[in-house]
Amino acid sequence: MSSYFEKALSNFLSEFTTTGSIKHLVDRGMTLDQIIENMDYPASREKVSRQMYEYMLEAKILVEDLDMSKYNIVEYKSRNELSHIVSKHGKERLYFMCPFGYYLKNNKEELLRLTSCLTKREADYILGIPWILNKTYHCADLRMLEIASELMDKRDLKLELYLNRELF
Fold it and tell me: Could you tell me the superkingdom of the organism this chain comes from (predicted)?
């Protein structure tokens, strides 16, 4: 009985410290590989990826389903226009629809081709997210703004942008 309790306590403490570390490192903008490298405790890539994804959902960095009754699609034609929209409305109100889950499941080669125009860090960021659904929404933070701009300019892939009209 004692060893069962000790093992359960050890698992709990490991999970608690790992999750806390992952949250902190995600908030610092690290990619999956950077998080794994900076972990104080060993954890599998799959476990870190799952916890990273769960935290990104919890923190609203990623959203699996937008309530479309609260959002409008925002048109943009250039990097400058996109940057202006994000600076005007703020990342809290804007989400990019990311089709990376579709490519991850159905055409990984195309996903690699799309991300090859990005910096290594940006590509690692996109490729390190598990993208469980075919499409997932990512907040329009500075990193995602740059990624969306690069994909539009260099790969002719325009990520749909949604504005929450009910905030503020």
Answer: Bacteria
Same domain, 84 and 47: no
What whole-number distance in Å separates Cα of residue 160 and Cα of residue 168?
A: 22
Same structural domain, 34 and 13? yes
pTM of the model as a whole: 0.87
| pLDDT tens digit sequence for 121-152 | 999 999 999 999 999 999 999 999 999 999 99
Q: 33 CB contacts (<8 Å, ≥6 apart)?
A: 124, 128
Long-range contacts of 73-77 (CB under 8 A, 24+ apart): 73/160, 73/161, 73/162, 73/163, 74/161, 74/162, 74/163, 76/158, 76/161
Count of beta carbons in the 10 Å neighbourhood of residue 141:
17
Number of domains the chain is built from: 2
Query: Are residue 125 and residue 147 in the same domain, yes or no?
Result: yes
- 54 with 71, same domain: the answer is no
Q: Where are the alpha helices (DSSP H) in the chain?
A: 2-27, 32-38, 45-58, 79-89, 100-106, 108-115, 120-128, 142-155
Cβ-contact 41, 17 below 8 angstroms: yes
If you count them, how many residues does the chain have?
168
